[in-house]
């Protein structure tokens, strides 16, 4: 069973310019990656990779399995260390202000909720008590206000992923890393989650990097798509389609172009 009816989905999650307030502070961080290498023994996963991501940009990374997508995400998240090279962050709010691990949040394919805590308490993890109301507000934003006292086992897969998204955003991240978080969802729930992620990204302005095997999803969400091949950037595609994006001729042309590029690697 899906989380919302199609009519509810259309009402709550379609992104329009009216959803985004012009005076919202953009909190995203610029990411500058220089000469990045990552080896596991003799295996070269990433080699001499250079990439600049603008503050507040939405990047999608695509490529065949084993090309280094998730490794790059883990390096940016500081879950692993580079073999060589640098990953630097710059705050958009203040040039002199540093970005720490607390400013970066990762959302995985598995929601990784604590099964012995309620949905609300999962979202409150790591927050000061003074920030608890923010967790409640985010549950309302992701459509789970009425389910806040339930256990994770009582939710559908899509609802658990919405909870994981609310938990990630409760810490006001400047960088949100998405490692195929929608891969296990059914088609309609996946569309709902795509629209929800886009809506919250537009509202808050955090820098977003999405790893996905779904080329259509990448075109739907990203400002720019990076194609990795054997640890190198093979191609980059700027997606200059207006939001909210419609799956018309221009969308299909981008989708076909990127799919062909992936298949040729």
UniProtKB/TrEMBL annotation:
SUPFAM superfamilies: P-loop containing nucleoside triphosphate hydrolases. Pfam families: ABC_tran (PF00005). PROSITE patterns: ABC_TRANSPORTER_2. Residues 31-255 form the ABC transporter domain. Keywords: ATP-binding, Nucleotide-binding, Transport. GO terms for molecular function: ATP binding; ATP hydrolysis activity. PANTHER family: BICARBONATE TRANSPORT ATP-BINDING PROTEIN CMPC, SPERMIDINE/PUTRESCINE IMPORT ATP-BINDING PROTEIN POTA. This is ABC transporter ATP-binding protein.
């Amino acid at each position: 069973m899906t989380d919302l009816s199609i009519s509810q989905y259309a009402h709550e999650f379609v992104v329009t310019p009216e959803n985004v307030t012009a005076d919202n502070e953009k909190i995203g961080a610029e990411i500058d990656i220089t000469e990045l290498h990552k080896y596991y023994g003799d295996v070269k996963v990433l080699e001499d990779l250079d990439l600049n991501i603008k503050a507040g940009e939405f990047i999608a990374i695509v490529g065949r399995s084993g090309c280094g997508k998730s490794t790059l995400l883990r390096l940016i998240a500081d879950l692993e260390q580079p073999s060589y090279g640098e990953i630097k962050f710059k705050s958009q709010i203040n040039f002199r202000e540093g970005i720490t691990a607390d400013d970066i949040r990762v959302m995985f394919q598995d929601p990784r909720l604590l099964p012995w805590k309620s949905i609300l308490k999962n979202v409150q993890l790591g927050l000061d008590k003074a920030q608890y109301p923010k967790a409640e507000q985010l549950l309302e934003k992701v459509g789970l206000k009425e389910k806040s006292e339930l256990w994770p086992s009582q939710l559908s897969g899509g609802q658990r992923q919405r909870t994981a998204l609310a938990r990630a955003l409760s810490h006001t991240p400047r960088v949100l890393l998405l490692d195929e978080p929608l891969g296990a969802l059914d088609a309609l729930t996946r569309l709902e989650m795509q629209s929800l992620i886009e809506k919250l990204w537009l509202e808050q302005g955090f820098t977003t990097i999405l790893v996905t095997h779904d080329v259509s999803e990448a075109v739907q969400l990203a400002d720019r798509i990076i194609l990795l091949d054997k640890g190198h950037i093979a191609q980059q595609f700027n997606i200059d389609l207006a939001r909210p994006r419609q799956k018309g001729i221009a969308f299909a042309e981008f989708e076909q172009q990127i799919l062909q590029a992936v298949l040729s690697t």
